[in-house]
Amino acid sequence: MTEKKRKHLECLKNLPRTKKWNEKIRKSHLGEKNPFFGKHHSGESKEKIKANMRGNKNPNWHGGVTPIHMALRKTAEYKLWRAAVFARDRWTCIWCGSKKNIHADHIKRFADYPELRFAIDNGRTLCRECHQKTDTWGHKK
User: Fold this and answer.
1) Does residue 36 sit within a domain?
2) Distance (Å, rounded) from C-alpha 118 to C-alpha 104?
3) How many domains does the chain fold into?
4) CB-CB neighbours of 93 under 10 Å
5) Which DSSP state fits 27?
6) Is the residue at 4 inside a domain?
7) Cα 66 vs. chain centroid, distance in angstroms?
8) Contact 41/49 with Cβ under 8 angstroms?
9) Which domain holds residue 111?
């Protein structure tokens, strides 16, 4: 790339992008105008791409640290607890009777009472709106 072209591209980076401009660029890369149009990665190429996006090579990698509360909520024990709470309450919000967007709520906070995390009698079925009104919603204390 020539110095002149590099400076031109650098200048374009700093320009504000309007909706009209973005749409013009999008249309200029549709169909046969796209340099990758009609081409496909080979199996070998796909494997190389996968290998270069695993673990610490992935731009979303944050050191292999999953917060403990997230890891616990992915366990089979947590999923069974949640299903049992829903079944006991017949998949219905116990406050308003809604069956839409239901959550399994811990009556005593998940973070503060680790011994009660999987106790079915520490759970209740609430719709999202009712759940947001509780003290246990999100990070409220």
Assistant:
1) no
2) 11
3) 1
4) 22
5) H
6) no
7) 13
8) yes
9) 68-132
How many Å separate Cα 48 from the centre of its chain?
25
CB 81: neighbour CB atoms within 10 A? Answer: 20
Q: Is the dihedral of CA 101, 102, 103, 106 positive or negative?
A: positive
Query: Mind listing the pLDDT tens digit for each residue in 82-123?
Result: 999 999 999 999 999 999 999 999 999 998 999 999 999 999
Structure tokens at 89: 């309450």
Is 75 among the domain residues? yes
55: in domain: no
Q: Are 85 and 106 in contact (CB under 8 A)?
A: no
Find the angle CA(27)-CA(31)-CA(33) to the nearest 5 degrees: 75
CA-based R_g, the chain, Å: 25
Q: Is the CB of residue 106 less than 8 Å from the CB of residue 116?
A: yes
Alpha carbon 6 to its chain's center: 37
pLDDT: is 10 or 131 the higher one? 131
Q: What is the pTM of this model?
A: 0.58
Region 45-67: mean pLDDT is 90
